[in-house]
Amino acid sequence: MTNVVTLPVITRLNLNADRTLESLIGKLDCFVLSGFDKEGHEFFSSTIADGGEVLWLLERCKMALMEMERDE
């Protein structure tokens, strides 16, 4: 057993995908997930059925990310 503490901070380091997903269990109402699988292929999954709503969420997240970069 290891003693790992998850801190609510922004980091420039990559995080472990499995640990990050496990930490979100029970905390989300819906999600859009994109990334790469272990073989390097693109992966996409969403709990939202409406494509327009998915795109809207992605654009909002993109805008928040761009504002975060600007504020640093």
Q: Main sheet? A: 2 strands, antiparallel
Alpha-beta content class: alpha+beta
Mean pLDDT: 88
| Number of distinct helices | 2
Fraction of residues in β-strands: 5-15%
- In which order are the strands of the major sheet placed? 1-2
Which residues sit in consecutive blocks of at least 5 with pLDDT less than 50? none
Question: Shape from CA axes?
Answer: globular
User: Please, how many domains?
Assistant: 1
Assign a percent range to the helix content: 25-40%
Radius of gyration (CA) equals 15 Å
Distance between the termini: 36 Å
Helix and strand pattern: HEEH
User: How many runs of DSSP E, i.e. beta strands?
Assistant: 2
Q: What would you say about this model in short?
A:
This protein is of the alpha+beta class and 72 residues long. The protein is 39% helix and 14% strand.
Question: Which features does this protein show?
Answer:
alpha+beta, 72 residues, globular
Describe the structure.
This protein is an alpha+beta fold. The protein has one domain (17-71). 39% of the residues lie in helices and 14% in strands. It contains 2 helices and 2 strands; from the N terminus they run αββα. A two-stranded antiparallel ribbon has the order 1-2. Strand 1 (32-36) and strand 2 form a beta hairpin. The relative contact order is 0.10. The model has no long low-confidence stretch (mean pLDDT 88).
Write the topology of this structure.
Layout: H1 17-23, E1 32-36, E2 42-46, H2 51-71
Antiparallel strand pairs: 1-2
